[in-house]
TrEMBL record:
Lineage: superkingdom: Bacteria
EC number(s) from the headed UniProt entry: 3.-.-.-
Entry's Gene Ontology molecular function annotations: hydrolase activity
Pfam families recorded: Polysacc_deac_1
InterPro entries: Glyco_hydro/deAcase_b/a-brl, NODB_dom, Polysacc_deacetylase_ArnD
Organism whose genome encodes this protein: Romboutsia sedimentorum
Full protein name: Polysaccharide deacetylase family protein
SUPFAM superfamilies noted in UniProt: Glycoside hydrolase/deacetylase
Keywords: Hydrolase
Domain NodB homology per the UniProt entry, residue ranges: 42-222
Amino acid sequence: MNSIMKKKLKIILSGGVIAIGTIVCNVKVVCAYNEEYNNQRKIAYITIDDGPSKYTERIIKILNKHNAKATFFMIDRNMKNYPDQVKSIIENGNTAGFHTVSHDINKLYKDCNSAKDEFDINMKTFYEITGKESKLIRLPYGSKPYTPSKSYENLVESGYKLWDWNIDTEDWKFSSNQIIQNVKNYTQNKNKVVILIHEKQQTVEALDKILVYLVNEGYELLPIDESQKPQNFWSDNLNQ
């Protein structure tokens, strides 16, 4: 190879290195931008416990009004008592999860398999009603401090996705006005919030104003997806 050809080859190879370096640089910039965007992105997961109930359809109607989706953690007997509402939850684009059979920590943690057994029953009931499955779960009163480590490990090993919350509206004991104020107070300086509410009269009365507030504050109102990494007290990943 003569000197002229070598020079041309060197230029070509140098150009290739520059091009590759530019691509790598651009990828890094895009990745950094995406990470920054995701960190700044405001998302509210509305999670609703203890249903379905006589309030479920009203809740869904309010959610639809704001183009919002939620995640419903349902108790077994309530799924059996309100099968049409179970179907409506899914048909309206919300996510279904489970909230045990007994809702009783003494029964749930009788042995290390009791909690898993209850969620297996939930899964069976849900499948009989909808023909679908879900691995999303929430333990009554949260996954800490009551859940023994072996019970937690058995749930994880069985593929269940356990979610807790970082905003407790305490709607079970407050008026609708106080529930709204609690949401306003507790969401301050948080970009990602998992909001706990229940299927109660006062919560239904507060829900519309809660959603209006969250939208005005720039939150996207999304359902939990099974593919997401679970956020719970064991993982200590709820403080964002």
